[in-house]
Amino acid sequence: MDTTNLDSAASTIASLLVILFALAGAAFLARRFRGTAWGQKLNAATSPISLLATRSLGGQHSLAIAEADGQRFLIGISRTGITTIGRLDDHD
User: Fold this and answer.
1) pLDDT per position as a tens digit, 30-83
2) Which of 12, 30, 73, 78 has most Cβ atoms within 10 angstroms of its Cβ?
3) How many C-beta atoms surround the C-beta of residue 77 within 10 A?
4) What are phi and psi of 37, to 5 degrees?
5) Exposed (0-12), middle (13-18) or buried (19+): which is 4, by Cβ within 10 Å?
6) Measured at the alpha carbon of residue 25, what is the angle toward residues 24 and 28, in degrees to the nearest 5?
7) Is residue 52 within 8 Å of residue 67, measured between CB atoms?
8) Distance, CA of 20 to CA of 14 (rounded, Å)
C-alpha cells in the first residue's frame, strides 16, 4: 500500500471517529434535557396542568380528571384520541 493511501485511510477513520463521538454526545445531551426548558425540569408545583386521577374502563379506554388553571375536567381517553367530557364543579 502506498503511504499516501495509508495517510488518507487513517484520516478518514479519524474523521469518522470524531463524527461518531459528536453524535454520541449529542444523543446524550438530548436525552438528558428531554422534557425540560433549558435544562430546568418542571415539577408538579410549577406546572399549570396536573392529572388528579385515572380509571381504566377496560380495553384501551379510560377516564381521567385533570386540573388546569384551577378548574377540573373529566376527560375520556381512548386509542383514537382524547375527549373532554365536561367541566367538574366544586362541591364545597
Assistant:
1) 877 776 555 555 555 567 888 899 999 988 999 999 998 888 999 999 999 999
2) 73
3) 16
4) -105, 105
5) exposed
6) 85
7) yes
8) 10
